[in-house]
Amino acid sequence: MAQNVSMEDFEALLNESFEIDTPAEGSVVKGKVIAIEAGQAIIDVGYKMEGRVDLKEFANPGEAPSVAVGDEVEVFLDRVENARGEAVISRDKARREEAWDRLEKAYASEERVEGAIFGRVKGGFTVDLGGAVAFLPGSQVDVRPVRDAGPLMGLKQPFQILKMDRRRGNIVVSRRAILEESRAEQRAEVIGNLHEGQAVDGVVKNITEYGAFVDLGGVDGLLHVTDMAWRRVNHPSEILSIGETIKVQVIKINKETHRISLGMKQLQDDPWDSVEAKYPLETVHTGRVTNITDYGAFVELEPGVEGLVHVSEMSWTKKNVHPGKIVSTSQEVEVMVLEIDPSKRRVSLGLKQTMRNPWELFAETHPEGTVVEGEVKNITEFGLFVGLPGDIDGMVHLSDLSWDERGEEAIQNYHKNDVVKAVVTEVDVEKERISLSIKALDDSFSGAVEGVKRGSIVTVTVTAIEDGGIEVEYEGAKSFIRRSDLSRDRAEQRPERFQIGDHIDVRVTNVDQKTRRLGLSIKAREIAEEKEAVAQYGSSDSGASLGDILGAALKTGDE
Q1: pLDDT digit string (tens) for 5-17?
Q2: 345 with 279, same domain?
Q3: Whole domain around residue 409: which residue ranges?
Q4: CATH code at 390?
Q5: Sign (positive/negative) of CA torsion 105, 110, 115, 117?
Q6: Using CA atoms, how far apart are residues 177 and 529, in angstroms rounded to an integer?
Q7: Do residues 43 and 31 make contact, with C-beta atoms less than 8 angstroms apart?
């Protein structure tokens, strides 16, 4: 019985010794390289067990294998014995197990890990983290998109673990997080050395429509297009190019967002400081049209100084016309300074003021009474508009079309584009109006009544008899004598006592050149003759009667 107990104890002790000394499958064991042959390393893992490992498993990505006979290495024991009686071992799996333990500790403490990019996969790259393979998304390679990752391949560098799952064997790392962290430190250091108003050198890194980003040595600042020059800049590429080194001034630093605003024009003299001295009011200067809008055109007097020519100051004659039809961009024009407001940095300019007022010029060259010729530009219900020299119009009112026809009838004789002659009757420069008369061209009345004045006695011919009086004619000029002017004696104020063709003497009471009318009166002639007779042959004091006086006057006349 005792012998049986001792045998059982011995068997138990033997089994216990096997369990302690024989390595378990699926664990990492230490071994010694005893030979290298046929691209493999033969490793003794103890207990008379040997295994083979490909030399490539001893190499880091992009490097040659580093192993020699006698080296002690750790390997992963897959199986104790295979068909050839050898242990199945792996250096890669040993490194992986070791790496996972190390990486889990780094992930927990948010420490950086070292690795090397060794391959490209869909959506990113593969990274060797000392035995464990991680995925590096394309968006996590750099702070800016990377077009060529070739220079980064095989290069040992730090990474930040974003996510890891040992059960699934997934690890996601970021290189960008490391760069951003170092950039933030660098930015804080650079910004700490900058102050507003400081002039620094920078390199243009990027150009956009609204400005340029300038590298100040680890930190970028924005140079807005409006701060590049005092003059108008349509696009930053007009004056800057990528890679160019420029001198800028720090305008503003936002300590919270680390945003830096830069300026170039602030390092130059402000041209507005001397605008009032260089451009006195009402002086004329040559400028270049830089921009055209619906309300006017901007003209550059010098780099950084622009003035506005309002649409109302562009032309004397072209009203309600878009400025683009008067001037064009880049055109050089002469302008007059109308107003300056340095505080608002505004200059009001005039284009038409550099040219003579066409109405003033017309008034000088075409005084009243001048005959002009022009084309009928427009026909309205109140008259004709006629084109005149200087690109201006004159108007012939209905009442100035004809002596003989009513205006509404006379205007029917004219058509647009007809060329007509007219007489200038009035020029109003302030109101920009020119009055013309076509009927004034007919000067026959003036010729007919030449030498005739108020009080003259003329002989007229009766041409028509009406109830209200008689129509008469003198040298082709017609006139009308009212019933009340036919005689001094009321009983003789009868139109029917005259016959068409009768010649009668009348006294001129009025000469109206505008209406081409003579004021005539038989009654006024008789009264004038009576006064003359009284003055010559008698007076009221002599006692002679009016009949005696007239009789004496008539007798003298007969003799």
Answers
A1: 566 666 666 565 5
A2: yes
A3: 358-437
A4: 2.40.50.140
A5: positive
A6: 126
A7: yes
